[in-house]
Specification:
Layout: E1 2-4, H1 5-8, H2 18-27, E2 31-38, E3 45-56, E4 59-68, E5 73-78, E6 88-93, E7 107-109, E8 112-114, E9 116-118, H3 146-149, E10 155-161, H4 172-183, E11 196-200, E12 206-209, E13 217-224, H5 233-241, H6 249-261, E14 266-269, E15 277-282, E16 288-290, E17 296-298, E18 304-307, E19 312-315, E20 319-320, E21 333-339, H7 342-352, H8 357-362, H9 371-386, E22 389-392, E23 395-397, E24 405-408, H10 411-418, H11 424-432, E25 437-439, E26 442-445, H12 455-466, H13 487-501, E27 505-506, E28 512-513, H14 515-522, E29 527-528, E30 539-540, H15 545-556, E31 563-573, E32 583-593, H16 610-623, E33 629-633, E34 640-648, E35 651-659, H17 661-666, E36 673-679, H18 680-686, E37 702-711, H19 716-727, E38 731-740, E39 749-758, H20 767-785, E40 788-789
Parallel strand pairs: 11-22, 12-15, 27-31
Antiparallel strand pairs: 1-10, 2-10, 3-4, 3-6, 4-5, 6-9, 7-8, 13-21, 13-22, 13-23, 14-21, 15-18, 16-17, 18-19, 19-20, 24-26, 25-26, 28-30, 29-30, 31-32, 32-36, 33-34, 34-35, 35-36, 37-39, 37-40, 38-39
């Protein structure tokens, strides 16, 4: 929020130095991020009058102007098209320096000497742009310094970071109230002296509020026979000082009153209001409207619309419509001052991606009982600057007035919260400095302070105005803020450290996703977000793997192809009852793509495959002591193909496999991606935590290799389980070290080669003992799987 120091002087007798005031404001909670000096003195720039204009002999677009600057006449070459004889203009004489650093001196332009320069507002630093030479009022004295003639004064602009709970400070009067409290000085608000005609306004406009929740109050005035034109210099300077562009005198007045009072207004061309009716209603599903910026917008259902007898003319509290805007042809104005529900404005503004000065104030909470003051202030200024006649009376529809909140004045509680010993009279005096009235030990909170709800809020006001530096430090109780980590958090950190140690990189993605896309990818409904920050983020995701696919797409577009990623985050599963909260689960997702060993010089160049993700899952299971883990073929996932499920006993912990070609195509990934997704709570519950020390045998192990020919559809995991079971306590390790399909193997068969380790704790096993065990193992796998030894 930009606040002008000179503008604050309209309400206060300011003698405090601007930068000192900025420090004081920051101490009471209005953080001043920057103070900009806006110099409005122009050395060697004076008022001149154009006495004669001749064509330049050597340039068609240039003119030679004879300009009277009081004591002398200057010959100045100028290319502006808006100059005529008799105009008063700013003249930069020799020795002047313009805002852009240009130094003026007598110079020859196409063989003709120019003894100065006629200036635009932009060249003087008063505007970001201008359409020609600045034409001054006719009554200014020739030769007078420009700043003196226009009563211009160097200003200081405060850029204040107003917190969301302080809508009252989004205006000059609101900030002036805070400055007055700091300086113990009451503010002097402008007094409205509205001169009305006898003709009544309510005979010319009828207002109906159908959306009473979205618009609790709607007020309007009618001003006839105005003349729309350029605003006076003082008004343009005031608006430009706070970053607003001048449009015309009517619109500028509404913007001026907005920046002065904090209450948004809107001016309609009264003659474009059909049926002379204003109807405030809610928008229908997929209703569209063309706003002032000439864009057709689809509105969310429930948006407050201001309509006439034919249709919408404005989006309430956000932006007016192209079909009713004030133009140079406008003669009669309908001036609106309303109050809109903050939540409705916030939802509609976010959905439309449209943030305006008006919406920023309404969504934080404008003053419902301040709109008449703002309306009368604007009507009076329009009448003064544009002529016209104000019809009698305000047409004010306010079905259920919003009353000021009352908070009990609990002195003891306030002192306990602050650690002070303030008297009731002291607290009362502090609160009255910000226009809080106290009656019968109750604080009457004005409606411009919606942030004050309880005694703690009053204590905060007392603290910031009394001065935090004036409150002595007191240690009342010692609190140990150190909170130990629970077992599940420790387990999650262990998982994270293991995966990083395996060479994976952690990513974090958003839980809010596009529900239409995610439902298409996962084949399941998502939990919806009632108030999404945008239309593309309207659901809570039910799986992490598509998020990793998006990360892979992002990296591939930037030429990073070899990726090993993981994410630990929450998913949200919709409940059977849509009115219930979603079921939240913490998941782990892993994705591998590209070359197994990257682009290292010793790399084989092989791409990752299914066995990489399966081996990673097996290694992780071993490290966290999932002692009964096994992999079972799984085909129910639409996210993964050639999938398997990880079980521990009878508990399914997650799935792994190749990312479906459909999802890969959706994210334009043309390489294989292998992924896994696990439920971390189930992994935590199934891990073996009662570990016991087991000594290592000091006797040598006996190793045997065996290759078995089995049917193609037989699971290797089932073979391993049978070997482990039959091998007994002496079998310490079973590993598959080769899978072969080829000419030596019959069709429909495959060869699996196993490496077996046998070892006893008390002796070296004999050859006979090993042979008996191997024979027992082979007999069982032959009977169960028709396995045959491969020679």
């Amino acid at each position: 929020m930009k606040i002008s120091y000179n503008w604050l002087k309209d309400y206060l007798d300011l003698t405090i130095e601007p930068r000192q005031l900025a420090d004081r404001l920051s101490l009471v909670g209005l953080e001043v991020e920057e103070v900009q000096e806006r110099r409005l003195d122009f050395p060697n720039v004076v008022v001149g009058q154009i006495m004669n204009i001749e064509d330049h002999p050597s340039a068609e677009k240039l003119k030679i102007c004879q300009v009277d600057v009081g004591e002398e006449d200057l010959s100045i070459v100028c290319g502006a098209e808006n100059i005529t004889v008799g105009q008063m203009v700013p003249v930069a004489k020799e020795g002047a320096t313009l805002a852009n650093g240009l130094k003026i001196h007598k110079t020859k332009i196409r063989d003709v000497y120019s003894e100065g320069m006629l200036c635009s507002e932009a060249e003087l630093g008063l505007s970001d742009r201008s359409e020609g030479i600045w034409i001054l009022p006719e009554n200014l004295p020739k030769g007078a310094p420009l700043d003196k003639a226009l009563n211009l004064e160097t200003d200081f602009i405060f850029d204040i970071a107003v917190s969301p709970n302080r809508p009252d400070c989004l205006s000059h009067i609101g900030v002036a109230r805070e400055v007055g409290a700091i300086l113990s000085q009451p503010i002097q608000k402008p007094v409205n002296l509205v001169k009305e005609k006898k003709e009544k306004a309510d005979k010319h406009i009828k207002i109906t509020i159908k959306a009473k929740e979205g618009c609790p109050r709607y007020s309007a005035r009618i001003i006839k026979n105005i003349k729309v034109g350029k605003s006076p210099t003082w008004l343009i300077n005031r608006l430009e000082a706070v970053g607003m562009r001048s449009i015309n005198n009517v619109v500028d007045v509404t913007n001026y009153v907005l920046m002065e009072t904090g209450h948004p207004l809107h001016a309609f061309d009264y003659d474009l209001i059909h049926g002379k009716k204003i109807i405030v209603r809610e928008s229908e599903e997929k209703e569209t409207f063309v706003t002032l910026d000439d864009k057709q917008r689809e509105l969310p259902a429930g948006t407050v619309l201001i309509c006439d007898a034919r249709g919408p003319v404005a989006i309430g509290g956000i932006m007016g419509g192209l079909n009713s805007e004030v133009s140079m042809n406008t003669v009669n104005v309908l001036l609106e001052s309303a109050y809109f529900d903050p939540e409705r404005i916030q939802i509609s503004s976010r959905y439309l991606g449209l943030s305006t000065e008006a919406s920023q104030r309404f969504e934080r909470g404008a003053d419902p009982n301040g709109n008449i003051y703002a309306l009368d202030r604007a009507a009076q200024l329009i009448c003064e600057l544009c002529g016209g006649e104000i019809l009698a009376g305000v047409v004010d529809v306010y079905p259920k007035p919003i009353e000021p909140r009352q908070i009990p004045l609990k002195v003891e509680q306030i002192n306990n919260l602050l650690g002070t010993d303030l008297k009731k009279a002291e607290i009362k005096k502090i609160l009255e400095r910000i226009e809080l009235k106290i009656k019968n030990d109750r604080v009457i909170v004005p409606t411009f302070r919606p942030d004050l709800e309880g005694v703690a809020d009053l204590a905060e006001e007392v603290a910031r105005l009394y001065g935090l530096e004036n409150i002595p430090p007191k240690q009342l109780i010692t609190i140990d803020y150190q909170v130990g980590m629970n077992e599940f958090d420790i387990f999650i950190n262990q998982i994270r450290e293991l995966l990083v140690g395996f060479g994976l990189q952690e990513v974090i993605t958003s839980s809010m996703v596009n529900s239409q896309l995610w439902e298409e990818l996962t084949g399941q409904k998502l939990y919806p977000i009632l108030n999404p920050i945008s239309k593309d983020l309207d659901g809570m995701r039910n799986s992490l793997l598509p998020s990793l696919a998006q990360v892979i797409e992002y990296n591939r577009n930037r030429k990073y192809f070899n990726l090993k990623l993981f994410e630990i985050n929450r998913v949200f599963l919709p409940p059977a009852d849509p009115n219930q909260q979603p079921q939240e689960e913490l998941h782990l997702a892993i994705a591998l793509t590209g070359k197994r060993e990257g682009n290292l010089w010793f790399s084989s160049g092989e791409e990752v495959d299914f066995f990489d993700i399966k081996g990673l899952a097996q290694l992780l299971s071993d490290k966290i002591s999932l002692d009964n883990s096994k992999f079972i073929s799984y085909s129910d996932s639409v996210i993964l193909e050639e999938g398997m499920a990880l079980f521990n006993g009878n508990n399914q912990l997650g799935i792994l496999g190749r990312l479906s070609s459909r999802i890969a195509a959706k994210f334009e990934i043309d390489s294989e991606v292998y992924g896994a997704e696990f439920q971390l709570q189930k992994m935590f519950e199934n891990r073996k935590i009662d570990r016991k020390y087991q000594p290592i045998s000091r006797f040598p192990a006996v190793e045997r290799d065996v290759a078995l020919i089995i049917d193609e559809d037989v699971s290797a995991g089932d073979i391993v389980s049978s070997i482990q079971r039959e091998g007994g306590p002496y079998l310490t390790k079973v590993e598959i070290f080769d899978v072969y399909r080829g000419k030596q193997i019959p069709a429909g068969k495959k060869s699996l080669a196993f490496h077996l380790n046998f070892q006893a704790m008390d002796r070296t096993l004999t050859e006979e003992e090993i042979n008996l065990l191997m024979e027992k193992i082979f007999t069982v796998v032959n009977r169960l799987f028709q396995a045959k030894l491969r020679e």
